[in-house]
Amino acid sequence: MNKRVFLLGWLILCSTVIQAQFLKKMKDKVRSLTTARADSSQEEGPYELSNTKPASDNPSLIIGGDEQVTIDSVFEFDIAVYQEMEAWQGNQPVINGGEQIVIYYSSAAPRMAIHLLSRSTGARYQFYADFAKGSQLSITAIHKTGSGTKEKLDLTTMEPIYPGETGYLNQLVKTGAKKVIAGVACEEYQANNVQTDSSQVKVTSHALIGARVWVPLQPHTLFPGYAFMPDYYKDQIESMLIAGSYPPVAMPLEMLLEYSNGDKVITYTTDIVSGENRAVRIMDVIK
Prior knowledge:
Elements: H1 2-30, E1 60-65, E2 74-89, E3 92-93, E4 99-105, E5 111-118, E6 124-130, E7 135-142, E8 145-152, E9 173-181, E10 184-192, E11 208-216, H2 231-242, E12 254-259, E13 264-281
């Protein structure tokens, strides 16, 4: 009997450890911000639940990060941009690959959010930016277990969760090209040779070498809450626009990422819905 109890406990422990390791790999791939450790040293908060059972039976979400940063547990939005991301290997689409995306904006407050759902793994990635409180929250969750990091919001270092690799949004430069997407006037930003040393990138590797994105010509077109931003952030945005760089406050409506081995990530907008109020709960990421 003792052996059975011991074996059961060992299996539960292994399942939890394996799941935690897989979650960490998914977090590292999508966003370096989500580095909170799921252990007892984390800050206890309103989102943390006890974890005495396997994650599938006992949903848990742990939020770590800067203790001085405050975040809400529920955000209200009234604008939603629906998108699809497709992954391609050469000229062939990846079956059951890609992600479903919803970008939320508010017309009554300076806040936005990005939600991603992986078709292949069911993993969820969420990002929230609250300009009134000067805070951002990045979360990764899979199999009803999630962790997130809250940080101070700074546009010069802000890298929202979005399809593809990290570290390219702040390298985008305006090209001058324009077009209309889903009724919204957009302009093109581009980043070439994203790798620091492109000469070291092998043709067979999956290294990001180019990015082209189309973003709204004016940030407030889809984000009316932009008008309520503190002057500090407005000044940052204005400086970035004058310099020709991309302030990540109005997310791309179309995007093309290209990799050294010929792979591509294509993101496009399917619908834009405005005037529909909805409350988004942080805890819903682990449902």
